[in-house]
Every structure is written in structure tokens, then in C-alpha cells.
Amino acid sequence: MKVGVYKSDPFVIIENGQYSGMAIELWESLEKKMGLSSTYISYPSFRKLIEAVEHGEVDAAVSNLTITKQRAQSIAFTQPWYDSGLRIMTKNKGSGSFQNVIDGLIDSGHVATFAWLLILALFATAIITIVDRRLDSEFPRRWREGLADNFFHTVSILTTGKTTHKNLFGWVGRIWSAIWMVIGVGIIAYITSSITSVMTTTSLTNQIHSLSDLSGKRVGVRDGSLAEDYIQELGIQTRSYTDIDTAVQGLMSDEVDALVGDAPVLEYFTHTHPEQPVRVVGNIFHPDKYGFGFALQSDLLRPVTLELLGLREQGSVRDLRVKYFGNAR
């Protein structure tokens, strides 16, 4: 037999020309039961795999192939052998991280305002230093010492509202000091509120926990997958990838804001790639089932289905699930 496959760890794993994975092991168990022998042919997407079965290029499709009404119009499916659904993968980054806050402050224009406030503080420092050098005989005569002393004095007023500077202008100086302290309180309030608001906005923007959070986002999907069809039906912008590895690369490089795919595939990736800062979030949505695909009039459909039901009753399918996903599934 010619068997078409689509690489999708852990169901179809292709390494150094060798085929393994849960779907492959299950298929090879069926082969032994039926006395068959297969040659595997790999395809770059689910869509290409289904077309190959439909056009007679291969006798069967073996992968985590979701059973849908649309696909069942082109090919025939065995009884389901795995319950699945869709989940969301996001980049595992802190929503309040330093870089995110800086980017938010730049985008909102606050950094430019901070720069002008710093220029104002430096200007005030220079003016006070010039006046002190002329009127205060005890003031440091070296410029760097005088500027440093008055810069500390200026920042102290801005941040604490307190001043220990010598009053050289009598009651007029007191009034100006009071005004400067009021300005300092306003500046600190502005800086605090702007940073807080940016952190809150950044947190809300970066949080993706469910399907409803994907509105307005760019979502990565695998080409020809159920996830691609479903997300596009919702009117959400998608970007297609050939496999999970390139999809995760797109997520890490900010080509997309999140990935949507088969829950077990995403979960398996995060489990086997702990070095990747990604996580699977939210509950499973759009529940579905996997089956093997055949041509509509294939003579193999019924006998394969019967043997598949037998393996399920014997617990062989359950044992494979435990092998690849543990007792949680």
C-alpha cells in the first residue's frame, strides 16, 4: 500500500527518514492484523494529503486527521480513534516586563515628555548654579561640584517635595521654592500615573486566554488544517505555516500574536521543548475527532475500521495514548 502521511508530532514523527508516532504505531498494528505492507509518502499539509487520497495517489491517509463534514465529501473516514479539539499557544512573557513598559511609554508619547522634563530639570540646575556662584560665597567654585550639588537639590524637590537649599532671595525665594515643590508633586504624579496606565494597558493587550481574546489579533495556523478554516470563518486574520516548528518561530519573532492548533500537538510541543518560552492557554474549544482517511469507494475502509474497533476494545489505543501523553489523557 501507498500511505500518505503528514508530519505532526507526536502522531507522525519523521526523523532521518524513519517514521514513528502514535498514528504510525496504530497503523502498523492494523497492518499486522490484516497482513498489509506500506510505503510512506510525506505531504506538506493536511490539504495536500487529503487531495492525494481523493485523486488516488495514495491508498490511505495516516496522521492526526480531523473528521469534518467538508472533508467527508472528498474522502471516507474510519471510526474515530482519538478525541481532540483546538487550543491556543502564546508567547510566555511577562505582560509587565521592562521592555514592554518601555515600548508602551514610547508608543504613547510619554518618553518624549519625560525627556522635556529632564531638560527642564537640567536647565533649572544650570540657572540655580549660576546664581549661587554669584551670590553665595560658600558655594563650591568648581563647576562640576556646583552642578552636581544643585542637580541633587533639584531632583530632591521633584521627588520628595523637600528642600535644604540655602534661601538667597528672602520671601521671594520662599515663594519660588513653594511653586517649584508644587510643580515637582505634579511631575511625580504624572510620571507615576503614566507608567501605571501603560503597565495596565500592556497587560490587557498582551493577555490572551480564550478564543474571544483573539479578535483583532494575528493568529498562526498550519496550512490546510481545521484550525485555519475555523479561525478564518470567525473573520480573524491568519498566517499559515507548514509545521509546528516554523509556526512557533513565527510566534517568537512576533509575526503572529498567538497560534491555534490541535490541542495534543501544542501540548506535546510545550512538553518536549521546555527551552521555548511558550505556553498553551485556555480550555479546548471546537472539539473534534481523528480518523484515518481512504478513497470514497475504497475496499479497505470497512476491514480497517473493524480492526480499529477491535484494537480499541483491547485497550491498544488507550495504551498508545498513555505512552505519548501520559495518564492525563
TrEMBL record:
The chain crosses the membrane at residues 113-131, 171-191. Its main location: membrane. GO terms for molecular function: ligand-gated monoatomic ion channel activity. It is found in: Membrane. Residues 2-328 form the Solute-binding protein family 3/N-terminal domain. One of its GO terms (cellular component) is membrane. Keywords: Glycoprotein, Ion channel, Ion transport, Membrane, Receptor, Transmembrane, Transmembrane helix, Transport. It is a multi-pass membrane protein. InterPro entries: Ionotropic_Glu_rcpt, Iontro_rcpt_C, Solute-binding_3/MltF_N. Residues 2-327 form the Ionotropic glutamate receptor C-terminal domain. This is ABC transporter substrate-binding protein. It comes from Advenella kashmirensis W13003. The lineage of its organism: Bacteria, Pseudomonadati, Pseudomonadota, Betaproteobacteria, Burkholderiales.
